[in-house]
Amino acid sequence: MSRQEEILDGLYEHTLNGEVTPVVELTQEGLAFGMEPLTLLFDALIPALEEVGRLFEIGEYFVPEMLISARAMQGAMNILKPLIAETGAKPIGTFVMGTVKGDIHDIGKNLCNIMLEGAGFVVVDLGVNVPPDKFVAAIIEHQPQAVGMSAFLTTTMPMFKKNIEAIKEAGLRDKVKILVGGAPVTQEYAEVVGADGYAPDASSTVRLTKELIGLTESVAS
Length: 221
Ligand code: B1M
Description:
By secondary structure, this protein is an alpha/beta fold.
């Protein structure tokens, strides 16, 4: 096995076990070795969290294990984020993003933010557990071209509709494109709640946002 493969395997295992120190060390070693930040992310860290979710589902992991795995991944993300986001690109638009009320999952959202920033968007991150009036206030304050809403629980997905209704009531619906995403969300659900689009992952969030706000040509380039 090559050292690169060992690094990816180690990152996967230590993230699964929630061990932040070796995760941070292996991330640094991988980068020093010339490995791409996105390789570390997509070939080790994200698969580890997917496995965490599977173990939770079958009752082998509980909330504390999920939490420490998420923290371990966060340790790596702190190092990777500036490397992924730093492109020096000129701002191409403003994007307001938040995890809906009742939901505190933020890793997927943060990943979208990093990719959006990397593509040149100014991202206003409202954080987690964001109520409808905060989305509305942020649209008024920052005048974004697009708003993203993240939900990771079937019980919090209905907040999309509540948020969109609040945005409509404030007379702002035609001012912004609204995108939704998160593990349990689907294209069909996005249509039902009246969103402009659904993105299954961070890179499609960037692609779809550019498309919706009329920057499609940049997508191809
Ligand atoms: Co929770 N959790 N969790 N959890 N957790 C899930 C989501 C679950 C699927 C696990 C399972 O059962 N298999 C399950 C939800 C079941 C359901 O509703 N269908 C679940 C549950 C039940 C819960 C609790 C209720 C557990 C409890 O307390 N009994 C609780 C709820 C807390 C709350 O929110 N009120 C809870 C708590 C937690 C922790 C706090 C411990 C922790 C979150 C830590 C954090 O985020 N800071 C946690 C974790 C880590 C998970 C899993 C294991 C991993 C989630 C994750 O971050 N994945 C998760 C299992 C799973 O999803 N398979 C699970 C990595 C991330 C990169 O995911 O989906 O690929 P990914 O992200 C993509 C897309 O979703 C998309 O782009 C991202 C990047 O490519 N995307 C968007 C995301 N947001 C977007 C927004 C957009 C566009 C695209 O806007 C435009």
